[in-house]
Amino acid sequence: MHLMRKYVVMGVQGSGKGTQATLLCKEYDLVHINVGDIFRWHVQNHTKLGAQVRRTMATGELIGDDQVESVVKERLHQHDWNYGFVIDGFPRNGRQAEFFLESFDIDGVIHLDLPDEEVHRRVLNRRLCSRCGMDYNLIADRPEVEGKCDVCGGELVTRADDTPEALSARLREYHTKTKPVLDIFRRKEYVVSVDARPDVDTVQHDIRQKLGL
Prior knowledge:
Elements: E1 5-11, H1 17-28, E2 31-34, H2 35-44, H3 48-58, H4 65-77, E3 84-88, H5 94-103, E4 108-113, H6 116-123, E5 126-129, E6 135-137, E7 156-157, H7 164-187, E8 191-195, H8 200-211
């Protein structure tokens, strides 16, 4: 017997949103909807929306609420999810949260809580293969040979946007925009907060427990 379940996962970058959403989806037959991935797909496939997104990003602006809302609406109307979904990367501000609550029923908001200093530790230890794009984390999965990719032998580099300054700016942005979203969801008693510091399995276990799964 499958219940319909619809969740939002929220957390700062480095908190493991994608990983946790994927595990939850696999176990409960849910569909993982990553809003950032949808936009990236449009950009890569040169759609009309992709061209607009590319222009917006070139000016350093954020993609507008209207555009994000219409993409989310369209994605959820595809109804390829029989038993529910986990949405990641939306809503990003108060207006989007209100829109979401008016348009869709949700069952819970998973808030992965990670202190800023831990975000810095995790994100500033990320490396990327300059050749094949493989991701490394110098804390968890160090390469066999220092500075070289295990897969193709390419040179490992820091991602361009992973400087301490850029990260601090992203964190500020996240906290100012996301706090209002959590407050809106908390009023409806949707939010479960989970400590994102432990290992992946512990965090997943806590999420399931708090959602009563």
